[in-house]
Amino acid sequence: MSSSPVASRCDQSPAWGLLQAHFQSAGRRFDLRQAFAADAGRYAAWTLTAPEVFADLSKNRIDADTMALLLQLARDCGLEGKRDAMLAGEPINLTEGRAVLHSALRAPAGKGFLFSDEVQASLSSMLAFAESVRDTSKSGITDVVHIGIGGSDLGPAMVVRALQAYTQHGLKLHFVSNVDGHDLAPVLRDLKPATTLFVIASKTFTTQETLANALAAKAWFVAAGGSDIARHFVATSSNTAAAGAFGITTTFGFWDWVGGRYSLWSVIGLPIAIAIGAENFRALLAGAHAMDQHFARTPLERNLPVQLGLLDIWYRNFHGFSSRSVAPYHQGLGRLPAYLQQLEMESNGKGVDLEGQTLPYATSPVVWGEAGTNGQHAYFQMLHQGTDVIPVEFIAVKTPNHGEHVQGEMKALLLDQHRKLLANCLAQSQALMQGKSFEEALQESAPTASKELDAATVARHRSFPGNRPSTTLVLDRLTPSSLGALIALYEQRVFVSGALWGINSFDQWGVELGKALCGQLLPRLSSGDTTGLDGSTAGLLKHLLA
Ligand code: F6P
């Protein structure tokens, strides 16, 4: 344990300078191939088990010395104290004066967790409503249109897609988020008011996109002969008054200590509960809670969110890697990269510390990705041979669940496809690490090479630098519980890097300026008035109106 006072920022920790020296002396030259050749126990040493998630960190540019210093950094920065403060409900979101208690939403009943009574009451009423909708013979509902954006969309949309295998036949979920009417219009084309339920999801109930879509949906409902708006429109919001003013009589409320991007565990998860049912929703919460417990109790050395968060600091602040790619090898996790973009970039895309001082180091990387294997045929070229090193996070699922309708020969074929999927996942992390030397490339025949290029030139095009880092996370199956654990792992990992950077991971002032300017520009799109605008904005506005 360090005896020095807690550093509010990582660069104020004694370990920061030690890490800089370590990077210069060893870290920047670290070679994964040599590390594996030198240590037969590397895989065993760098694999970790957390609830529902197995992690292989061995293909990262780290060794015991690096991790020891990163752990010292974490301790110097009082990571455990900061974690405990969050979990204890201290108002760590300073700029908004709020606690950050999404973990309380997934805690089991009756265990003395904060706000347990309120949370359980809210959960029970939301789940009871979800079950009543799922009872389609009584509810008459065949389609649920969920209208929300950002944290009020990405989590529910991602989870419902991921847990498709758990959804009910005859009840379709649709997600509309964009203010662009091309999102809403096609969804409504084939729906009927009598069999449609709209869920208007907005924590603030002031979000332009959501209110615009809700208004248009209401207009469609009435024009298409719908009656009983009170039965066909419900809201999930912490602003029940605004939802009421909109004409919604049933609102499932929640609290300001639930951040938008951390809200899928709250009533914002209503479409998830409608899609997968109460029991599965509770399993999603239980998986996340198990990960919370791991985060709260496991020593930092074996604590997966902590290890991943420290790796993020190592790559971002010492190696200078500016992005991280996420490659889930499961089609159901196709929206996970988009979800993680908000989670990580809205949380940690900050430029000042808690005291408002400009940071002298980088924070959130760009997070991006696509489900494998599709990404391989799009941007993996750059990951393998491009000039930037981009750590990749592979997510593999051991056992598939293609659905009960998949039987006989098709079942065997899809199982074979699953083996192909896993082989691709392993091959990509192997290729990134291994690379291909100039000599190896030279030995290969190059049938497509132009006669004008000599063999050495062609070999240079065909060689790979290798030593490109990756992490592989493995789930046994994609279930509500394992998905809950995976999402909570990411949430807590984002907390770890944010805590060390000394930033407020729980506000998002960076989205406000654009909103305000949009409000000022909107009337000009009707009037055409460009007075006082900069040249580009004025020119574009005229061009759009011409
Ligand atoms: O984009 C900013 C933001 O405030 C997100 O943080 C939030 O998830 C989203 O807008 C939607 O907000 P609301 O749920 O209040 O409509």
From TrEMBL:
A UniProt-annotated Pfam family: PGI
Subcellular location: Cytoplasm
Enzyme Commission code(s) on record: 5.3.1.9
Main location: cytoplasm
MF term (GO), any: glucose-6-phosphate isomerase activity
CDD domains: SIS_PGI_1, SIS_PGI_2
EC class name: isomerase
Keyword Transcription regulation found: no
Record keywords, A-Z: Cytoplasm, Gluconeogenesis, Glycolysis, Isomerase
Active site: E346 (proton donor), H377, K515
Keyword Isomerase: yes
Reaction catalysis annotation: alpha-D-glucose 6-phosphate = beta-D-fructose 6-phosphate
Pathway(s) of this molecule: Carbohydrate biosynthesis; gluconeogenesis; Carbohydrate degradation; glycolysis; D-glyceraldehyde 3-phosphate and glycerone phosphate from D-glucose: step 2/4
Top-level taxon in the UniProt lineage: Bacteria
Function: Catalyzes the reversible isomerization of glucose-6-phosphate to fructose-6-phosphate.
Family classification: Belongs to the GPI family.
Protein's recorded name: Glucose-6-phosphate isomerase
Gene that this polypeptide is encoded by: pgi
